[in-house]
Structure prediction request, 80 residues.
Amino acid sequence: GPTKILELVPNEKLVIDWPDWRGDAAVPVQKVSWLLEEAGPGKTRLTVLHEGFTRASDMSDYPFGWVGFAGALKGVAEAL
Prediction:
């Protein structure tokens, strides 16, 4: 998971680093951006950008992880 906050704009943007999940120090650190924007009364749109992939296997694996994470995040948000 992340080790550093690279950029923070309150209520708009959070950018974090994302080291290789396999622990391979030879793989460059990636970047994950969380962007928030108003999407109507009482609604917020979340856009997640995961950048810096160097291996094709990572690009094919990560969507599955983020879909699972997004589902869990939705459950937490709806319980509030």
